[in-house]
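Progress note, sequence design subtask.
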């Protein structure tokens, strides 16, 4: 199986349209960046932990820019507060301008964690135990919050790229006895129809040329690096289900185990099976 590169135009372009601070229910906070692009009409996201990772396209001057418009789209340094009138601050404290990350010059333990995460309505919203997508998203957020930096690139590629309606059909085929790969093929879809050119472009926009990638999928490592090695994956960080590590709080069940074993045996995912 190879990465789908059919959606990589010669000049793939992304633009961060808006950035906003989101306080989290665990007491932390993130900055959600919403991106437009020149290959689809979907609103892809970068969920950024920490204030040092900045979007170049967001911060770049735009036609008819004003201090107000820059603050409203999130192109400000430091923090917003009532009565603020300028987007940047010369003061050398917490309200000083942040600069794009230069992670390729940092030691390995300072290279930011990155998760390339494809939208999964059933796993993230509908409490599905057919997959561990929601658990992986939560675990990525936990690890990045601990380090104080990191990025979840959230791509609108529901159902490994086939869309929610076709994914639900695939679930019915699974209930008829087919695994996740065969179900897709019976619907005349690839086992995995996703592409990662947009993720690579978003990482470049965020100034991240070297990353540690949270994934079990070796194809994703090569795909995210890009056709010309625009991004370097310095380390692949495995994402082992909590239940498979003997920990509580994760997704459990026979259907999840079968799904993950299919990914190992038929899709080449690098994930050690549990001993039990």
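Output:
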């Amino acid at each position: 199986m190879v990465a789908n590169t059919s959606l990589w135009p010669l000049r793939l372009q992304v633009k961060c349209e808006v950035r906003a601070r989101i306080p989290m229910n665990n007491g932390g906070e993130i900055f959600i960046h919403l991106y437009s692009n020149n290959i689809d009409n979907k609103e892809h996201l970068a969920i950024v932990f920490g204030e040092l990772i900045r979007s170049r396209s967001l911060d770049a001057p735009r036609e008819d820019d004003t201090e107000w418009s820059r603050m409203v789209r999130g192109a400000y340094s430091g923090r917003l507060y009532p009565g603020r009138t300028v987007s940047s601050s010369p003061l050398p404290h917490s309200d000083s301008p942040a600069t794009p990350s230069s992670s390729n010059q940092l030691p390995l333990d300072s290279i930011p964690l990155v998760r390339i995460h494809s939208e999964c309505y059933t796993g993230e919203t509908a409490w599905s135990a057919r997959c561990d997508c929601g658990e992986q998203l939560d675990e990525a957020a936990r690890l990045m919050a601990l380090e104080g930096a990191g990025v979840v690139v959230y791509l609108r590629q529901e159902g490994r790229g086939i869309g929610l309606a076709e994914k639900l059909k695939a679930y019915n085929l699974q209930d008829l006895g087919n695994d996740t790969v065969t179900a897709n093929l019976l619907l005349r879809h690839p086992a995995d129809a996703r592409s990662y050119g947009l993720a690579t472009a978003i990482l470049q926009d965020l100034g991240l040329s070297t990353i540690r990638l949270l994934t079990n999928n070796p194809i994703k490592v090569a795909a995210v690096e890009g056709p010309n090695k625009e991004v370097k994956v310095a380390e692949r960080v495995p994402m082992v289900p909590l239940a498979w590590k003997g920990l509580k709080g994760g997704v459990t069940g026979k259907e999840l185990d079968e799904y993950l074993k299919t990914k190992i045996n038929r899709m080449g995912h690098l994930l050690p099976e549990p001993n039990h």
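The longest strand covers residues 14-23. Work on this subtask will continue into the next period as scheduled.
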